[in-house]
Every structure is written in C-alpha cells, then in structure tokens.
Amino acid sequence: MSAKSKDGGGAQKHRIGLYPGTFDPPTLGHIDIVKRALKLVDHLVIGVGTGTDKNPLFSYEERVAMWSHESEELTRDGGTIEVQPFGNSLQVDFARKVGAGVVVRGLRAMTDFEYEFQIVGMNQRLAPDIETVFLMADPRYLSIASKLVKEVAMLGGNVTPFLTPHVAELLVQRCAEKKRKA
Ligand code: ADP
Fold this sequence. Notes:
It contains six helices and five strands, in the order βαβαβαβαβαα. By secondary structure, it is of the alpha/beta class.
C-alpha cells in the first residue's frame, strides 16, 4: 500500500510518522488527524492496537481493513500511508520497528492531555530519539469519540455525522448483529 515519497527519494529527508490508536472504529476525528499528519511527514504508519484491554467491538483485522479502505482517499494530496497491526509492544519500540522518528497523537480535551502528558514523559525516558507531536482536534470533530459513537449506534442513533459512509455502514451492521445475539 505504500507508494513513492513526495520528493521521489531525492536529497530531502524521508520523514516517517506513527499514528497509534485503538480506532474502534476510526472516526472523522481520527481521519482529520491523519490528513494533517501527512502535511508533517512523508509516510504515516497507522498502528492499529489490538485493544484487548478495551474489549473492542471490531477485531483488529477489521479495524486495519477499515483504514486500508480509506487510505487511497487520504493520500490523494500526497504522502503515503501504511496500516499495521500493533500488538503487545511498547509504542516506542513499535515506532523504532517501523522507522518512525515521530509519534502523532490527537488532543481533544484536558482529559486527553493529562493522560498523554504522562505517556510522553515515560516515552522520553525510554526513547529520547523519538518525538511525540500533538495535533489539536479540529473544532468540528472535538466531541467525537469512538466510544460515544458506538453508544449512539447501539441506541439506534444516526452515526453518519461522525464516520465515513463505509465505517458507518459496518458499525450499523455490527450493532444489529449484536442486538440479534442479545
Ligand atoms: P487510544 O486507545 O490510543 O486512545 P483512540 O483510537 O481512542 O486510541 O485514539 C487514537 C488517537 O486519536 C489519540 O491520540 C486520540 O486522542 C486521538 N483522537 C481520538 N478522537 C479524536 C478526535 N475526535 N479528534 C482528534 N483526535 C482524536
């Protein structure tokens, strides 16, 4: 899925970033972060966490497939994306494995900040060569959280303002399956 770099492999440094997350499912907020991260790096690895501790609604293979489905559209303005499952390894180890010098995270609220601040502090000690860059959530997507979108879907609400049409369709299907089984 990766393609040629913007500078065609010339003298400029090829910057690789890692955007890790659970993405259960990816929302328009996550998509916005990817689009903006692609202005900062040439190649972005989307690291999809297994999220076993979070009891995800979608398997990580499904979440990887969702990102792969969106990749073409996301790289239309340049840059390349690679979607990789991200198992039980430390974020900084995974960043090193994929050659990323930058980890990208999104910030929505003070609650995100406190959590991320602690993680960054630890990561700086573990891997001082890897920087974490925070992108403030776009005001249009500030209130979108995968967890809340799932709750809206389970209660039969309209999730199309928060997701791409493809992901919205998969979420509605999954919720219907869950309700049938309950
Ligand atoms: P995690 O389980 O690592 O928190 P998430 O899938 O919830 O993973 O989010 C991945 C990253 O995307 C995190 O940095 C999170 O703060 C950010 N993020 C989540 N939702 C949004 C949003 N609506 N706008 C901007 N960033 C977001």
